[in-house]
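Here is this case:
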Amino acid sequence: MSDESKADVRQYVRNAYEQLGLPRLIIIIFLLSLFAVAVIMRMDLAILVKDSITRIGMNGILVLAMLPTLACGVGLNFGLPVGVIAGLVGAVTSMNWGLKGFAGFAAAMAIAIPLAVIAGYLYAMLLERVQGQEMMVGTYVGFSLVSGMCMFWLLAPYRNPAMIFALGGKGLRTTITLDRTFGKVLNDFLGFSILDVYIPTGLLLFMGVFYVAIALFFKSKAGLAMRTVGSNPMYARSSGINVQGMRTLGVILSTVLAAIGILVYSQSYGFVQLYTAPLTAAFPAVASVLIGGASLRKATIGHALLGTVLFHTLLTIALPVTQTVLQGADISEIARMIMSNGMIIYALTRAERR
């Protein structure tokens, strides 16, 4: 190989390293190390890979919901529970009607999306009054709404026996199974196995459709205007762009994606979790998009996808491997909390350095 070719290779490797970044490179090496340990311990790799793919599909749209608010300059959407609550209302309403399969899932989306649009608009109006503090205020808005909705879940007039508490005959249960309604409708659609690894084709296709749709949106006139508002509001205003309108659109779009995302997550998980379960729904999504390489000024589809793969694959693989290595000591929950919250802290602290 000539000196010129070697220089080209070094330059290519250097560019790839700069694009990937040291933190993501370390995470990738750590993931490969976990897979190596799993092979050495003779663990079932097919199950680990299957669970990782499923978890990526479950969380992909929730992570994608971060992009519109980052693009329009609002920042990370810590108010993601606003959209999550809209999705949960759609889910329990569809279940209360007894709808099953794709009909039940479609009905849940049809109910959740209008609610998310209304809630997103009101949320955007609030954020306009606290410009510069959107992320902090969004956190409190999400926490407050989740707490307030606890009363709704207890008092809402749902009467499906499979959903309400047996004692007293009213009030939705904390966890409601989806086995008899629309549980795993996307996971089972066109699913197939390769080398004992089940591929949830419908789940991945559904996620992919939204990733492609958002990518096309950002290339449209409205999407470019939204990015302009996020990068330079004064220039956008002087160019005739409605800055407040673009920010409002970004928040609404993020809220709608969150509502759809929780429906996808719930049908794949097989349960709907109410009351305080959505309290920290935003944090894994925030960590994922930041670990993927996004910053408060720049976020792309690639950042969301890479972050989803790295964050959720690591959580999926690390727990069983850790428990297998430390036989006789059940620290899976402790390890999950350390890894999950540690990665979130790392991601959030890195956001301010960019």
Notes: The chain has a mean pLDDT of 85.
